[in-house]
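Notes from hallway chat w/ T.B., transcribed later so I don't forget. T.B. wanted the structure written out for a chain they're using in a teaching module, and asked if we could keep both sequence and C-alpha cells in one place. Agreed to drop them here.
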Amino acid sequence: MNTTLEKKFINLLEEHQNIVHKICRMYTYDADAHKDLFQEITIQLWKAYPKFREESKFSTWMYRVALNTAITLYRKKKRGVQTLPWENFDFKMSAEGYDSTLDDNLKLMYSAIKELNDIDKALVLLYLEDKPYTEISETLGISEVNARVKMNRVKTKLKRILNP
C-alpha cells in the first residue's frame, strides 16, 4: 500500500480514535480486553480502508467496521478468535491516553448498557454520540423507523435496569 494512503489512514484514525475507545469500553470489561479489542478494530479498519469509497463520512464507516468487529469478536470469543500480531503491521500511531475514571452515575449507566444485547449497545452508543437517526440507521444497516422504535424500547429497558 502506498505511503500517502497510509498517512491519510493514520491521520483519520488518530483524529477519530475516541470512537474506537468508546466501542471498546462498551464491549469489554477490563484494560487488557480493551487494548486487545482496540488493536483488532485498528487492524480490521486498516484491512478495510482501501475499499472505503467515501460515500459516507469516515466516522460513520469507522463506527460500522468497529461495531461489526466488536460484535463478531465477542460472539466468537468462546471459539478462541485469533488476532493478528501488532508487529506484523508497518504503521504505528500515537494513542492518546485513555482515562477510564468516571463518576458514579456514568458507571451505573455503562453497567446498565452492558446488560443490553449487542445491537442495542451499538444503538445506544450512537445515540449518546448525538448521531442523527439517518446516520444510526446507515451504520447499523436498519431502517430509520426501526432505529427510532428500537431506541424507544431500549430507553424503556434501561429505565427498568436502573430503577428496578
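Follow-up for T.B.: Residues 102-164 form a domain with the Arc Repressor Mutant, subunit A fold (CATH 1.10.10.10). Might be a good example for the class.
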